[in-house]
Amino acid sequence: MSEIRRANAVFQQQADAVLSQANPVSTTLYTVLVTTKNVRIIGIEAHLTWATTQPTPLEVVVTIDGVTVIYKQADPVSATFYYAINELGAAENAQTFNTANVEAVRKAFLLEGRSVKVEERITWATTQPTPLVCRMKHTKIP
User: Fold this and answer.
1) Does the pTM of the predicted model rise above 0.70?
2) CA-CA distance, 108 to 13, in Å (whole number)?
3) Which of 16, 41, 62, 77 could form a disulfide with 110 if both were Cys (CB 3.0 to 4.6 A apart)?
């Protein structure tokens, strides 16, 4: 009976999940959204502003129902906004970003799952004062 009620449940808009990490440490995963049940990701935007050493790559890591999907941008341009897109011809660990706002061409949602976690990271040789930012719009079944 609970499964029937769940089938009729409605996704409800949630406050944006936001990360703004000053001085990120190379390869450290920073949590944007802790593991949450019944999530539909509407969209993900990531950016960073670097001072000295260009980080590479910028990555958003989505763990969804046990599958890891990684959106990557090699050699990200400082202060450029990157939007996650699903590229059907690419492997789960090699999804891409688009620098154009994809709202006009985006489907109803990016991803959805029963268990969703979103993290962000960069890699580089040295740590420097660099804000690493990610914003995710999502809905969920309460």
Assistant:
1) yes
2) 13
3) 41
